[in-house]
Amino acid sequence: MNICIIGLGLIGGSFALALRKYALTDRLYGVDASPRNAAKALELGLVDELIEWDRVAEAADIIVLATPVDVIPQLAIKLLNRIDDSRIVFDMGSTKEELCEIISQHPRRHRFVAAHPMWGTEHSGPEAAVEDAFVGCNTVLCDVEQSDADAVSAVERIFTTIGMKIMYMSPAQHDTHAAYVSHISHITSFILATTVLEKERESATILNLAGGGFESTVRLAKSSPDMWIPILMQNKYNVLDVLREYIHQLEIFRKALERDNRAEIRQTIERANEIRKVLDKK
Amino acid sequence: MNICIIGLGLIGGSFALALRKYALTDRLYGVDASPRNAAKALELGLVDELIEWDRVAEAADIIVLATPVDVIPQLAIKLLNRIDDSRIVFDMGSTKEELCEIISQHPRRHRFVAAHPMWGTEHSGPEAAVEDAFVGCNTVLCDVEQSDADAVSAVERIFTTIGMKIMYMSPAQHDTHAAYVSHISHITSFILATTVLEKERESATILNLAGGGFESTVRLAKSSPDMWIPILMQNKYNVLDVLREYIHQLEIFRKALERDNRAEIRQTIERANEIRKVLDKK
After folding, report:
1. Domains (ranges, CATH) in chain B?
2. I need a surface site. Which of A73, A104, A220, B51 has the fewest CB within 10 A?
3. Which residues of A18-51 are buried (b: 16+ CB within 10 A; e: fewer)?
4. Residue A192: closest CA among chain B residues belongs to which residue?
5. Is the full-model pTM beyond 0.90?
6. ipTM, 2 decimals?
7. Is B92 part of the contact surface with chain A (CB cutoff 8 Å)?
């Protein structure tokens, strides 16, 4: 079985390493819109061969979309236009509603599986690919009833073989949850970084004084705009809901601090501490 | 030389382990207001002996205050009231202005060294003490010109021996910087946790979907209210300044997202990405 990965950055590159490790593919093809990234991916041995976009639909049995989410819907349609019913296309994008709506009426929709393996780091590009990514994380599959059973099984087998668990959701549920547990964290980090960089103009001071706590909180601020702008735009309404709620809660905290309301501050911190129950289970 | 640590939690306990590792003390005494924590610290071997508060000023050559910051100023005054000029008192608190003001006119002020070793984790209590804490981090010393040279040297020697670098600042400078590089991170994490917990009432969903990014950003939300309420209250005006600026920047980002202003969002994320230059130097 031959697989082709479109998009050879952090996600596509790490997925390539996993496919090879578990011998899930005979020949691994790759495509990347950036000639530099494509060449780098080949040099790093992430893929066996770079191929032209026009050859993908015939060369690969399974085609994986691992590009930024703004181009996934159009690429999905173009691939569904070209493949025959023996092939499977799936994606690895962080948003699902826009994609699932756009492909919904395509006559070959049943050969597509909408997937989001929930893993990532703040780094980007083929050099950021890591071995044993994805292990222990969840893959969300959306609208599986619109995909052929054999296509869903094949995709599930790939994700479970590389160490992931499978969850099922509607695209709307997925995008709401993703806004809360992933997308908002990136905004809080981006803005924390800009706030601190704005004030602490001497980066040496930040460097010397910042402990592990700051570093952890601001880590995601290193994330790529090319990946994150499309995600935030596509999940705009959910992200705005969470962002408004977050700002509202910050305002309440600010007022409590202004008024020396220790009881309210304590209540908030103790409620926040409950996140321990969630994280410590992992 | 005998040392006594007042406050045997995360900071005092980790410091005890470091003092022992580098053989910086003959006998290590401990005091904790909580009988449970005191007993636990002894059981864990963090200190050699628990002593009564009234015996501290005579038993120890060096006395270390590692309690929550709200009680450090009073304890500092009480110790300075009782010690003779052969002894040294220093603190490890996260705020410095309030402390330095309160002790400033004490006739034995010169035997006190105001210190902030910039290290911590989100855990608390004697069980949270870790070996090799502090290594590679900075200790800020404030108002050293008000301390005797021998006292400053002794404290510097302890911190450098356990692997720390020394920086010098005024208490006001310290508290401003600490608000930016440490205190605000805790607020952004506390509020991120409460926002997500409020919405995602089924913690299983958070558990299943949250990746390493969320975990990193929200890690500090596990931090103890007993430690953090006093810090936020004592550094209230600096913290409020940063918090207002942070909320302001979030509002700007929210409006850019509402208006699909990709160029502005890109500019913000690219500015945030510059934190990479700071963190990657560490």
Report:
1. 2-169 (3.40.50.720), 174-279 (1.10.3660.10)
2. A104
3. bbbeeebbeebbbbbeeeebbebbbeeebbbeeb
4. B246
5. yes
6. 0.92
7. no
